[in-house]
Amino acid sequence: MLVYKRNPYWLNAFAGEDYNMNNGLQGSSCRRPATNISERDDDFLLQMVLPGYEKTDIIIDVDNQILQVSSKKETPANEKETVLKREFITKPFERKFELPESVDTDKIEAELKDGILMVVIPKMEYAKAKPPREIAIADRKSVV
Prior knowledge:
single chain, 4-stranded antiparallel beta sheet, 144 residues, disordered N terminus, 29% strand
């Protein structure tokens, strides 16, 4: 009998806690966009806040169960003006997420809408939540 057990720490790896730990600190060359990850019955939903980015600026790759979301976009410098304060910054970023073995990497879909990147990561059939079912008791004297 195959029992599907999940490592209790799988979400730490999936959420990418071990990757790119600079957290967007001042002076760093890379930042970490805020990310939400939720598990639904049939899939995982990864939402990443990316204001100011176009879909052509974002690169999404999957290799060996690692999902990587990155961009190389830089805020253009304007030589005709002196910037006194800049808080709207688009810098290159890279986030990596270790995917569980139970996902179908061939069917991952992504959409960028209103500055939020939504990546739907479907589960394999065996990993999807199944509704409860009743098991009938046999009338025979011996089941085995």
